[in-house]
Amino acid sequence: MNALLPYVEDRETGEFFRAASEGRLVFRSCNSCSRAIHPPTEHCPNCGSWDTGWRESKGAGRIYSWSVVKHQIHPAFPVPYTLVVVELDDSPDVRLMGRIDGAVELTPGTRMHVKFEPIPGGGSLPQWYPVKEE
Amino acid sequence: MIDDETAFAGRDKCAVAGIGSTVFSRNSNRSVLSLATEAALAAIADAGLDVSDIDGIVRCEQDTVTPYSLAAALGVRNLSFWADTGPGGVAPCMMMGIAMGAILSGQAKTVLAFRSLNGRSEARLGAGVPGMNGERIGGFGKYDEFYLPYGLMTAGQTFALMAQRHMIEYGTTQEQLGAVAITCRDAANATPHAQMSDKTLSMEQYLSAREISTPLRLFDFCLESDGACAVIITTAERAKDLAKPSVLIRAVAGGAPSDLRPGMMFPVVTRNDMTELGGQAAGKKLWSRAGVGPAEMDCAQIYDCFTISVILQLEAYGFCNKGEGGPFAQSGAIGYGGKLPINTAGGHLSEGYVHGMNHIVEAVRQLRGEGIRQIPGAELCMCTGGPLPIGSSVVFRRAA
User: Fold this and answer.
1) CA-to-CA distance for B184 and B347, rounded, in angstroms?
2) What is the nearest CA distance from B245 to chain A, expressed in angstroms?
3) Chain B residues closer than 8 Å to A64 by CB
4) What Cα–Cα distance (Å) separates residue B11 from each residue in B7, B184, B235, B238, B397?
5) Plot region of B363 (φ>0 → left; ψ -120 to 50 → alpha; else → beta)
6) Which helix H or strand E contains B46, and what residues bound it?
7) Which of A117, B186, B113 lies closest to A126, judged by CA?
8) Which of the residues B170, B206, B317, B353 is marked catalytic?
9) What are the residue boundaries of the structural domains of chain B, listed by start?
10) Which of B265, B158, B130 is nearest to A5 (CA)?
């Protein structure tokens, strides 16, 4: 069973997925007020500007919430797996999803780093993993 | 007590004159149109009206039964107003607002509001996800591409992430979630038509049930049901002369979270405060419009797609402070004999899941004095819908 493939041609969101396929993590941001806009829209809801673009992320953040999924929903995602919600260091306004195979032990605020993983069937998704303690 | 008579022109101007339901089951073996028709006929008869009196029909946008098909099946010859609202569980309370708007603006005299679904045998909300046939996910304003390809696919998983965050911020416990499930089950045990009428639930059973998406377990999830509910709304003036004691629509209010993000339910994970609901804004407007506050409610029907949804809404609508929903639920306040009995027929967790509509029906039963487990002397009852991505709410009042 193929994975679920994101639509990558959308005018508002496509660049996020096209950049991920090139190993870059980007998020939409307002060129007028500098506020991040996620999920991305062309219009800035903060200052009202249409002058918005994409900013490169450093690819680091902290865990905000998580859930270990144990009830099978889709054949592409065998259980157990851990859904993670990560808040980017670049901006508290950007939180991104990730999925880690298995039941992962996490604690609030765990440091996370991005890793680009190919999707069977095409493209890549930014995924998030706990940073190993030194 | 907040009282601003001029703030809300609709106060007590319209009433629910009739209610009707089908049996709630795991397999109705009937079409959703037949279920809707049966519930509508029951509501029309309950009001002492005739099919020919209906001139408006409003529905949930997720219903596959359209207002015009239902009009056709019922034999309504005078359909002059119709509307859809949503999304999902947010619909029923907003249907009351739409019906009221149509009636007070002269677009309709007698409005039928309904919800019909084969939510277990045909279209399971907890299982159906797009992309099963290989089509690309999201785009075109849907925003699902940020969630479904990651395996975030269901409402249950979304509310699990909210519950986890509520636990991190406020120390909410598994037992507090369990208290909500057990409260609703206790009400269902006193309600013969409830799907879980014959099955009791102890804390031990709750805690030992299988985990679906941590921290949520089996009994944190609502039922999936086949069934339909319908209500008839007309002017308060006219309702007085109809068959049953009328129940006034005291106030209706919807609301959105302070930093709404595009998409449906999943984007809650991106909001600054993942435990803030649209209900918080709706509640402020609701109590102001109603001229009464949360402490004056004799009971409440709180939209319970999950146990955590109830805890979040108890906070959002001001029944307790933010972060205190768990201890409030555990204190017994929400049970029969408590200061705010909720989901008095068992709610979605234990009565049946008609996507918010059975909550409206139960509110009306309580205020007529027809409760199966009646709250003595109930005069005011509030109902909520939602709770993602926006919220809706109603205060009902027994007519003097």
Assistant:
1) 6
2) 46
3) 165, 269, 274
4) 9, 30, 11, 15, 10
5) alpha
6) helix B32-47
7) A117
8) B353
9) 14-118
10) B130
Q: Are strands B216-217 and B226-235 parallel, antiparallel or unpaired?
A: unpaired
Measured between CB atoms, does A61 come within 8 Å of chain B?
A: no
Extract the tokens encoding A54: 């994409």
The three-class DSSP label of residue B91 is helix
- ipTM score: 0.97
Q: Where are the alpha helices (DSSP H) in B49-197?
A: 67-74, 91-104, 155-170, 174-189
- The confidence score (pLDDT) of residue B336 equals 97
What is the CATH code of the structural domain delimited by B14-118? Answer: 3.40.47.10
B87 CB contacts (<8 Å, ≥6 apart)? B61, B62, B264, B389, B390
- Minimal Cα–Cα distance from B288 to chain A, Å? 28
Give me the sign of the Cα torsion angle A105, A109, A114, A120.
Answer: positive
- List CB contacts (< 8 A) between A120 and chain B: none
Question: Token pair for residue A109?
Answer: 């605020």
Tens of pLDDT, residue by residue over B130-148, are 666 678 999 999 999 999 9
What pLDDT does A120 receive? 85
Record: contact B143-A4, CB cut-off 8 A:
no
- Segments making up each domain of chain A, as ranges: 14-130
**Continuous segment of H or E residues that includes residue A19:** helix A14-21
> Using omega within 30 degrees of 0 as the cis cutoff, is the peptide bond preceding A6 cis?
no
